[in-house]
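Feature request disguised as a bug report, sorry. It would help if multi-protein outputs had a clear separator. Right now it looks like this:
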Amino acid sequence: MLLMNNIILDLKTFGQMFRKERKAVGLTQAQVAKNAGLRRETIIKLESGAQVDANTLIQAVAALGKTLAINDRRVDYDNLNEAFNEDN
C-alpha cells in the first residue's frame, strides 16, 4: 500500500480507500453504482485497483459525497521556516 501523508500513490490503494469510505457512509456497491450512473461491476473494478477512466472515478467519488483534491507535495519553505522560527 503506497500511502504517504494521506496521499494515495497507486490505484490499488485508492480502491482500498474507496471501499473503506463506501462502507463508512453505509452504501453498498450497487447503491454507489446507481447514484453514480455506473454499473456495479465498475465499482467492483475500481475497488480492486483496476484502471477506470477519470470521469468514472469522479462520478464514483461524488456518489460517496466526497471530492478529489490535488495536493502539492513540494515543501513550502515559507511555512516551514515559520514553524521552526523561534521569534514567532
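(second protein starts here, but nothing in the output says so)
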Amino acid sequence: MLTICRNERSALVKNIAIRTATVAFGLSCIGATALSGAANMVEMQVVSVITPAACTPMLSGGGVADYGTIPARSLKPGAVTPLPAKSLSFSINCDAAAKVSVRAIDNRTSSVIVGIVAAGSGDGTLNDSFNFGLGTAAGKSIGGYAIVFQPTSYTGDYQQAQLLYSTDSGTTWQPSTNGYVAKNRSFGWGAAGSSYVSSLRTISGTITVLPYINKPENLSLSQEILLDGSATLELSYL
C-alpha cells in the first residue's frame, strides 16, 4: 500500500503562511522560504504484511484406527500378539506452496513396554524410538505400536513425491526407504529422487499403524481392556 500525505500537509502549510504574513513582512519572508521547502517534499511509504502459508494436516476416519472387539482368546500365551495393519489417508493442504515437516509425539509414552515393537515385528532395528504406547489398564501397559508413512504412496502437487526424514531438526535430509516413524525424526517431502524438501501446496499419501499386544499373562484379562494409543502429528514450517 502506498500512502501519500500530500493534501493534508499542503493545506496545513498554506494556513501557517497566511497567518504569519499578518504579523510582520520580515517574518513572513523567512517563514515563506522555510515552508515553501517543506511543501516541496512528500513522504511515500511502502507497507504491507506478508503472512506465511497456512497448512492443514488431515487424517481419514477422524484419525482413529479402530480395531473393534478383540477376544482375549486370540492373544498368544507367552508371546506378543501382533494385530493387523490399519491404514489411514494422510494429507496436508496449504493455501500457498510451503516447505513443511511432520513429527510424531507419543501421548502415551509412560505406557511404553521396552522392546515390544522389536519383539512383535521380529525386526531388532526397531528400537524404542519407534515404539509408541497403547496406554494402560489396571495399571498394566497394554502394548505398543509402530507408525509408518508408506513411502511410495505420497504425491506432492499430484506428482510422485520423495519421502524424506531428518534427525537434526531439518538441517539435513535423506530419503526414507521404509517410512517407519521414530520419535527423533521429522519427515518432509521433495521431488522424486530428491534429497531436499520442496515447497508444495498439496501432499497426500498413506499412514499405517502396526500394533502389538502384550503377553496375556501380563494383562488383567478379567476386565475389558481398551486400547488407548494416542500420538500427535505436529506440522512445522521450514
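Even a blank line would do. Unrelated, but nice: Residues 1-35 have pLDDT under 50 and may be disordered.
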